[in-house]
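Protocol step 4 of 6: structure prediction from sequence.
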Amino acid sequence: ISSGTDATGNLQFAADTLDLVSKASVATGANLDGLGQMTSDMAMKFGLSGAEIADSLGVMIEQGDRGRMTLAEMARVAPEAMSVAGLAGMKGAAGVREMGAMLQIVRQGYGSAEEAATGFKTMVAQVYSAQNAKTLKKLGIQIEDPKTGKLRTFTDIFLDVIEKTKGATPMLMEIFGTRGILTMHSTEYGRDGSHKVRVADGL
């Protein structure tokens, strides 16, 4: 219970999710404390209820079965990825699903889940940097939604970049950095449009 209580300051929340976290840990081999921290972040940073957390864990298990990052790995690295969730525009249950999908994509370009989480965090920071705003504008990509004035989600910008650059390495490297380019070269995203379907489906 300690990790859930430490993060949320709510003993009741930790007690309510203990059974859920315990079952997920037994089923997947994920670290109990890591899962506790992750579910606490789901509540605090994504605004999820207990029922939504249960559904989101199910989604992450499915993503892990179909992708390259298991729930056990996700429990280790999710706190780092979730630290930039707000900047990336990821909110609610849909945001958790989207973050999981992006981590599965990024994971393909890295040797470990930890490196993938750091890579995702770095890519988010680079996309929203003042320097990249100018580069993206030249490509016809806007960081802010012209109707609401709010930042667009990282995934929307990510997909626009893949489409606009047509996979050109120099431009991708300028936007995502040397480490981020590993993700681009490890997938076929953007070449046939299938990336959009997979992200929308949660993978």
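Step 5 (inspection) to follow. Residues 123 and 177 are 7 Å apart (CA to CA).
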